[in-house]
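hey so u asked for the seq, here:
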Amino acid sequence: SISLLIGTFGIISTSCAKVVYGEYIWSPLDLASHWHGPWGRCGAFFVGFCWVVAQIGTNLSANVISCSNDMVNLCPKYINIRRGAIITTVTAGWTMVPWKIISSAQSLLTFMSGLSIFLAPIAAILAADYWIVKNQKIDVPGLYRRHGRYRYNSAGTNWRAAIAFVVSLGPNLPGMAKAVNSSIKINAGIEHIWDMNYLWGFSSAFLLYVGLSKAFPAGETLLEGMIWDDSAQEGIEVGSSGDDREGNGNG
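ran it, structure tokens below
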């Protein structure tokens, strides 16, 4: 609801700028730069101050800390939370050239759409796995065990999810390439899938993951009921192998 409210204010502000200044101004900072006089400068100061606080708070909590934790979990032997924060900051601050991303409304929208082609299949797979495949019955302690029931194979990957992700992502890539660089020539209608990238990404990954999971079920992950702690595991498991139960017993 907060995101919807903020987005609504952005639309209203941009539309009002057209009436007052004769052009659509999508950037809050550019809009504040048109405010003159004592009251205008005071308003511009508080808008800029709120912008700085919002950017620091959002990026620290939602980007730097979360990304650092992910890298620590991936490579705990080599990366700690401090090193992860440094890597994230360098990558986000220089490698991704954020000043080019926000140089115009079109580039920002293209960047956000580019994120959606990756986020849509991930969201679809998570939703399909929890609501349809697992039927809301999961082993909560097993989610945090390296060799628990959700390891799936020796490599620790769920090939059903990997296939669904790749199939969902692939058709969106030509359109994204064309959106980023208009000089790229693609002589195929596949580029238009980009116009409905989230709809395609979510629906295709959702249906394919459910289909693969039903055709090739991972029996060790299917349960008759929810497992909240280790004491609740007796009589709940369905299709679990002896190796999986042994792995779940490791503390």
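Residues 37-74 form the longest helix (38 residues). The radius of gyration is 24 Å.
lmk if thats what u needed
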